[in-house]
Amino acid sequence: MHGTGDIDDSGALLEQVNQALENATPLRIQGSNSKAFLGRVTAGEILDTRSHRGIVSYDPTELVVTVRCGTPLVELMQVLDAAQQMLPCEPPSFGDGATVGGMIACGLSGPRRPWSGSVRDFVLGTRVITGLGKHLRFGGEVMKNVAGYDVSRLMAGSYGTLGLITEVSLKVLPKPRQSVSISLQMNSERALQHLAQWGQQPLPICAACHDGEHLHLRLEGGGGSVTAAQDRLGGQWLDNAYWADLNEQRLSFFDEDQPLWRLSLPHNTPKLSLPGRQLIDWGGAQRWLKSDAEATFIRQVVEEVGGHVTCYSHGLIDTPFQPLPGPLLRYHQSLKQQLDPRGIFNPGRLYAEL
Amino acid sequence: MNILYDERVDGALPDVDKNALLQALQTQWPDLEILHQQEELKPYECDGLSAYRTTPMLVVLPRDIAQVQGVLRLCHQRQVPVVARGAGTGLSGGALPLEKGVLLVMARFNQILHIDPAARTARVQPGVRNLAISQAAAPHGLYYAPDPSSQIACSIGGNVAENAGGVHCLKYGLTVHNVLKVDILTVDGEHLTLGSNALDSPGLDLLALFTGSEGMLGVITEVTVKLLPKPQSAKVLLAAFDSVEKAGRAVGDIIAAGIIPGGLEMMDNLAIRAAEDFIHAGYPVDAEAILLCELDGVEADVQDDCDRVRQVLEQAGATEVRLAKDEAERVRFWAGRKNAFPAVGRLSPDYYCMDGTIPRRALPGVLHAIKELSAEYGLRVANVFHAGDGNMHPLILFDANTPGELERAETLGGKILELCVKVGGSITGEHGVGREKINQMCAQFNSDELTLFHAVKAAFDPSGLLNPGKNIPTLHRCAEFGAMHVHAGQLPFPDLERF
């Protein structure tokens, strides 16, 4: 329907899953492998999703796009761009070949996330090949749909451990009419104080990052609100390209050798004292840490303030995702057992027990 | 096909000795309020779907979480089904009791525990009313966005269980987009926290799965919601059209102009006249359809958007476009819409509210088909539509005292929902499946999909004691329902691949 790469290869994917089920062979689902550095190191027969690709339907006035899992993310972005629309959650690619399926499975969101919502918030429906070897449909192409359990949103961020996402329907939105970025010189304590105040006011802020010396803000909306906010806040003009560099971890902060940790925190968490360097994103709710400190120490500090930590340096520790409390882990295992009884989908990628 | 619990097709329920259970509860929790006399149980025999009633075996009204935990543990030990209930305003019978079950009423947990303006969150007990959260947040200039029409009475626990919506969903999302964390008790009384005070949490997104799970996976004991700064300005445009098709197209045109209104509602002539009679909102009563378009945000943008939308509406053929001249008129415009259900209720002894969603482009066809069905079944249908997000609320007017009318209304409603599925929509946008739409689930999902839903349920509640019979039909029920629908050897919608 759109472009040349429109191929329904779900039959072959289903066959590979059924083969794996028959032989009880674990599968390692991958698109371009751009996010292979996330999660635990796992083995398994490779299931390459990239043959199943193309945009199935897109009607800009419905604000819904339906895409096959192997479609390159960049292709989806181009199609949305041409219609002056966007995926508001700004998922990072971490590589030119990143696919839509991987984007959903990892569920990572970009700088706009605290204001727009996350990847899962924009998922309306999915088609999934399940652990019983069936190709099923959940959710749909409508904004509101509460029939049955919300299996579609459960798939977002599940790292392929519950089934193979073959297709996804996403809510999209018009791009803002105006988008301007500014930089304000201030220390991080002051930046966090400001952000807490501004957050209670109807300001058009939709990205906020502090790099140690400057608070970078992106203002989006109609012309009037953006200009008014710019007048009020002052600061230096900043190229909007900054946000893509932040999102794709191309800023010099990410170049240093030390391990990279992602801290997810309550919005108004004060500056955290940890060894190494920090970059504050998401208006304070996501912080990047470059540090040689022990995982257990970092986690202890972050848990005390109600957050959690992910290790972004591949293979550094065996639990890159924060370990779950016992009872919660049991329900994770129980759900995995029910949906993937033969344990073929990315076993061990999230946790050794799943 | 009757929707009340039928052990033959919905599964056998354990036989429980009511007196022994009552005694055990009384002994273990002397302070726990328990209703067990016929006349005390009566008020709890239905929720907002009042056409269907079942007297529960017992009603318990705990006041602290330890009691809830105790009730769940005891019921689990004795294999007694438990149906949780909040304010009982649900429209799909999600809190419809069971004769062989305990009704667990969470309404007394009505405390707002903490408002944190800097973090923009509110931590509340599950029985807190939706509107009470916004009222408590108002001094900080904040509010809780999802606003189901019943917001004055419905509880946040019920909102989470049903993934409640409202008139501002297109821009501000459903409950699932506005909840950060829930505390739950599992079927055997074990405490879990899903989500966190941060924007995400490790592991699978069980918070998303739990939202809208209709009390089937656990009982909510605490909710932390996101608060938003109140928009500086909100303006409402009212546009009249001489055909519903034109009004429908205007909705697409507004979106195509790159504008996401805070609210975008449509009403047809019958609904307009009913609302006008009741509220005197100033609606044009000879219009075939009206659109209410609310634009909110920063003053300068709102003014700008208003001008654009007015232009779009005029180009789309609106016979009249009116901007609410002040806050009083804005509130009046909305009051007409928010009271559309009771207003329609005045036209008829009874009405039945449907909740299907459709892709917006299908609207003219679906409205036309509803008109034909309405004539075929001899029942009037008023249409109220969350036009921005494709959520229709056809209201079927009937008189339950006229023999056969309720059944006719049910059948007509079922047909409308199946029509929604046929055009790529859903049988429920925000009211939930509950018991009401249990048969239509068989039209939306095939047996493999239903089997997966049952597997999800089994992961949390293997013995099926939480709210049995709701949300997901048994394959047995679907087989019988499907058999009923085979006419002249043809399934309905033979062109529908997935039925």
Architecture overview:
The complex is a heterodimer of chains A (354) and B (499). Chain A folds into 2 domains: 10-174, 2-Layer Sandwich (Uridine Diphospho-n-acetylenolpyruvylglucosamine Reductase, domain 3), CATH 3.30.465.10; 178-311, no CATH class. The model of chain A has no long low-confidence stretch (mean pLDDT 96). Chain A has 354 residues and is an alpha+beta fold. Chain A is built from 10 helices and 17 strands. The radius of gyration of chain A is 21 Å and the shape is globular. Chain B has 499 residues and is an alpha+beta fold. Chain B has helices at 7-10, 18-28, 38-41, 65-77, 130-137, 156-162, 169-172, 206-210, 244-256, 269-279, 299-315, 327-338, 340-345, 363-377, 405-422, 441-444, 447-460, 475-485, and strands spanning 33-35, 58-61, 82-85, 102-105, 112-116, 121-124, 142-143, 179-185, 191-195, 219-226, 228-229, 233-241, 263-268, 289-297, 320-323, 350-353, 381-386, 391-398. In chain B, helix 14 packs antiparallel against helix 15. Chain B starts with 6 loop residues before the first helix and ends in a 14-residue tail after the last helix. The chains are: A alpha+beta (354), B alpha+beta (499).
Number of domains of chain A: 2
Number of helices, where a helix is a run of at least 4 consecutive DSSP H or I residues of chain A: 10
CATH topology category name of one domain in chain B = Uridine Diphospho-n-acetylenolpyruvylglucosamine Reductase, domain 3
Largest interface: A-B, 86 and 99 residues
What characterizes the major β-sheet of chain A?
Answer: 5 strands, antiparallel
What multimeric state do the chains show? heterodimer
Structure at a glance:
Chain A has helices at 10-23, 73-82, 100-106, 113-116, 151-155, 188-198, 223-233, 241-247, 295-304, 326-339; strands at 27-30, 45-48, 55-59, 64-68, 85-86, 123-129, 135-139, 164-171, 173-174, 178-185, 205-210, 214-221, 236-238, 260-264, 277-281, 286-290, 308-311. Chain A is of the alpha+beta class. Among the domains of chain B are: 7-105, 2-Layer Sandwich (Uridine Diphospho-n-acetylenolpyruvylglucosamine Reductase, domain 2); 112-229, 2-Layer Sandwich (Uridine Diphospho-n-acetylenolpyruvylglucosamine Reductase, domain 3), CATH 3.30.465.10; 233-343, Alpha-Beta Plaits.
